[in-house]
From TrEMBL:
<keyword id="KW-0924">Ammonia transport</keyword>
<feature type="region of interest" description="Disordered">
    <location>
        <begin position="462"/>
        <end position="484"/>
    </location>
</feature>
<dbReference type="InterPro" id="IPR024041">
    <property type="entry name" value="NH4_transpt_AmtB-like_dom"/>
</dbReference>
<dbReference type="InterPro" id="IPR018047">
    <property type="entry name" value="Ammonium_transpt_CS"/>
</dbReference>
<feature type="transmembrane region" description="Helical">
    <location>
        <begin position="20"/>
        <end position="40"/>
    </location>
</feature>
<protein>
    <recommendedName>
        <fullName>Ammonium transporter</fullName>
    </recommendedName>
</protein>
<feature type="transmembrane region" description="Helical">
    <location>
        <begin position="323"/>
        <end position="342"/>
    </location>
</feature>
<dbReference type="Pfam" id="PF00909">
    <property type="entry name" value="Ammonium_transp"/>
</dbReference>
<dbReference type="InterPro" id="IPR001905">
    <property type="entry name" value="Ammonium_transpt"/>
</dbReference>
<dbReference type="GO" id="GO:0008519">
    <property type="term" value="F:ammonium channel activity"/>
</dbReference>
<keyword id="KW-0813">Transport</keyword>
<dbReference type="InterPro" id="IPR029020">
    <property type="entry name" value="Ammonium/urea_transptr"/>
</dbReference>
<keyword id="KW-1133">Transmembrane helix</keyword>
<feature type="transmembrane region" description="Helical">
    <location>
        <begin position="354"/>
        <end position="373"/>
    </location>
</feature>
<keyword id="KW-0812">Transmembrane</keyword>
<feature type="transmembrane region" description="Helical">
    <location>
        <begin position="202"/>
        <end position="224"/>
    </location>
</feature>
<feature type="transmembrane region" description="Helical">
    <location>
        <begin position="399"/>
        <end position="424"/>
    </location>
</feature>
Amino acid sequence: MSAITFVAADVPFTDSGNTAWVLAAAALVLFMTPGLALFYGGMVRTKSVLNMMMMSFITMGTVGTVWILWGYSQTFGPDVAGGLVGNPFTHFGLKGVLDQIYGYVPADAAAGTAAAGGIPAPAFVAFQVVFAIIAVALVSGAIADRAKFSAWTVFTVVWATLVYFPAAHWVFAFSGYAAEKGGWIANKADGLLFGGAGAYDFAGGTAIHINAGAAGLALAIVLGKRIGFAKEPMRPHNLTLVMIGAGILWFGWFGFNAGSALGAGTQAAGVWVNTLAATCTAMLGWLLVEKFRDGHPTSLGAASGVVAGLVAITPACATVSPIGALIVGLVAGAGCALAVGLKFRFGFDDSLDVVGVHLVGGLIGTLLIGFLATKGSPTGAAGLDVTEGLFYGGGLSQLGAQALGAFVVLIFSFVVTYLIGLAIHKTMGFRVDQAQESQGVDLTEHAESAYDLSGLTGGRFGSGGAVSTSSPAKPAKTHEGASA
């Protein structure tokens, strides 16, 4: 007969089930960054594929490093500067973090978190770093085909430090999982202008997608338009890669959203279902717009609709019902399909529609919480309180809190990113010159080409650029990439 060990109610414990789920979810979210690389890489022209993919991959190296050094502490450390940022030195190098247990609530305390608790601090650190990585990588799609890789690499560190870490500190409210209860947007937006709860952003629609979309707009303005923008075709070179990337993003996003419950329970399961529901209707909404507007649905539209739905449901996945999730997805799919054309109307070159999908999709999902939040949601089913939206008898307070959080992050991200981009552009130069852009940034920035077609073209690469077979690392000077 095996012995039974009893643990006192006030002794912290590690919940192996919750820990396993959080670590698995972290791995799923990390897999999203290579998925994003495929998604973005397929959407650019042949001469820019590797550069585009490298812009995603390098963020894993740079942001992962600074997260361990100061990023975690800056995001989840104790408030400094009036709560605008966490103290980067409190947990510098993860000092004092590895032996902590998060999410444990003593038996005599009121339950303050959705998770069952017992999450070791390193699991929380791991889950949050992959969010930071992909948030930075998302921005790169706005400046495809024309950015210096060295400048982008510097930008990833500076932007993460000055924009993402502070915004995440404002938005995320993991009571019991960090040194502070949570940021002012999550907990205090109601105290500034409104009488209801703080803004809901369950998995990062504000901190990640609105943030990245606004940053993409700022960088697109700083770098200017690509050569031939709106005058010659710049079609995706490989839609197969785009659809594979979209599939990986959808797969990983279940870790992104359901993992944010930080426990394997009722809330995580409901969030999983809502994530699926919104993504399905978003794809249908995008394809319907294409059918009525253009006469035919496209594979690019299906993939883009999937991403739009995932973006929109990210902030709302825990506070809307499954029917609400279907509505969020449908509105986001149709709305983002219409929004991607804004760059031609207003004249900014957002290469891969970061603004149209992530900024607009993030705004749709964040603001619809003010209408669709309900106690019949995963959070309500988990026994936690939900301030209901307008369609469920709630007042304007929740919508006001959502709008305040969304637009504060939007404005903050745009202004600071513009200044960062301008500073890099004026010092080390952010954009390649015209000759390099015409030849292709794969060759000029990396001395590589994505496709070795020398066996079929008599010693030359195909439309992605020309390289002599005798010296594959030396860019040729005679061949431009194809416009398609």
